[in-house]
Amino acid sequence: MLNQINGLHHVTSLASSAQENNAFFTKALGLRRVKKTVNFDAPDVYHLYYGNATGTPGTVMTYFPFRNAARGRPGTGEVGTTAFAVPRDALPFWEERLATLGTEGMVRTDRMGEQRLMFRGPDGDGFALVAQDDDRTPWVADVPQDVAIRGFHSADMRLDPRGAAASAELLRFMGYEREASENNVTRLRVPGGNAAQVIDITEVDAAHAAQGAGSVHHVAFSVDNRDKQLEVRKALMDTGYQVTPVIDRDYFWAIYFRTPGGVLFEVATNEPGFDRDEDTAHLGEALKLPRQHEHLRATLERHLEPIHD
Question: Which residues form the VOC domain (predicted)?
């Protein structure tokens, strides 16, 4: 069993509008845009990162906004809900705020003894705010500090019965421990991990999901450094998983592999961080391009959808 994984690093999803996506996360949810760059494999598409003041692993939601992309079809084989942690008494504030903003799909629920507010993002994305004690320092701009989002609480994978069982076994190999079950949900947690160390598996009988705007593309797990990442990669490959070589993503190094349930997993390093090419005070302000795409800057700046902060 592995012991290198700390919990979540980031969650990456698809969107249909960069401007709408940016407004939702920075204005409605009050997160900081910590990086404005482009998709390594499709440089005519942004890669936008939102999190706390410095983009600490375990706080960062990222998006590929494909302009006018069709919505995804929910189903199995995907992360259905991304949950953020907020202070224990913050849900009434968020209910009022999100209702005023016309947010869809709002409903209060209880899971594993925790109160949560479910809601939908601009592309039908599944989100939840979970009330808990959390001492992480939030980004404070449009939302008061005493109710602001602290970072991730969990990612909820929606899987068929076979995928659920196999994925739970994989997560246990990755260092997660089964914590509890409730109805069709099984909760796993990395003991001693970061504050974003929960994965929920919801077992459902449904058709396989079709990716589109509002779908989670992949979920990334945190390791401290490249040495620990290589240990994880070797262990996964020794177990029979097909894992990519290490890929330099400028702000972290990444490896990817597909889970038995169909969800794409990434293992990302905490180093070097989002301040490697920008001063912390100005994170996310300028368009940063990977070295191999810098020669396209003039073309990309004309093509990419304007983002008005």
Answer: 7-132, 151-270
Tell me how many domains the chain contains: 1
pLDDT bin (cut points 50, 70, 90) of residue 54 is: very high
Q: What is the CATH number of the domain that holds 55?
A: 3.10.180.10
Q: Is residue 308 part of a domain?
A: no
What values do phi and psi take at 122, rounded to 5?
-60, -30
Length of the chain: 309
CA nearest 138: which of 58, 62, 67? Answer: 58
CA 99/CA 91 separation, integer angstroms: 12
pTM, to two decimals: 0.97
Q: Reduced to 3 DSSP states, what percent helix, strand and coil does the chain have, rounded to the nearest 5?
A: 20, 35, 40
Helix (H, G, I), strand (E, B), or coil: what is residue 46?
strand
How far apart are alpha carbons 241 and 236 in whole angstroms? 5
Edge-to-edge strand order for the sheet containing 247-248?
32-38, 46-51, 60-65, 7-15, 216-223, 264-272, 252-258, 247-248
